[in-house]
Design a protein that fits this description.
Blueprint: E1 10-14, H1 16-21, E2 22-32, H2 36-43, E3 53-57, E4 60-64, E5 85-88, H3 91-102, E6 106-116, E7 119-129, H4 132-157
Antiparallel strand pairs: 1-6, 2-5, 2-7, 3-4, 4-5, 6-7
Family: Belongs to the SmpB family.
Biased composition (Basic and acidic residues): 137-159
Protein name: SsrA-binding protein
Amino acid sequence: MARETDTPDRWIAQNRRASHDYFILETVEAGLVLAGTEVKSLRHGRASLAEAYAVVEGGEAWIMQLHIPPYEQGNRWNLEPTRRRKLLLHRTEIERLEKAVAQKGQAIVPLKLYFSRGYAKLLLGVGKGKKTHDKRHTIAERDAEREMRRASRAGERGG
């Protein structure tokens, strides 16, 4: 019998601002190097991707400002909540991300943090920043889609 924690892709945190602020061009799944108390804190569903961003330095990928709060029973083994953490990626994936970031206006944005088959994973997206008029256009499209769904439901009810 599978427990709820064993289900694949159990979300811990999601970066909702990412789709609002960036056009996501491609995504990559990365593993995280974490300490034991950090994993226990994540299992309680506590993390924040709000300020997080990823960088490539010296041929290695790092996640910065990912906030994992201290584990309550962790006492002296707890580490700094926003320390930089190494991302586990293949060399070719790191090189592809490095080339993407070298282009003007693109950044590596963390999208989701989740457990997959017992391992903490981070879904990274290569994003191109949206301008204000692009954001307005996206909001207008979403509102139009919502109105069409409402109208079709009202038509189905006969009202």
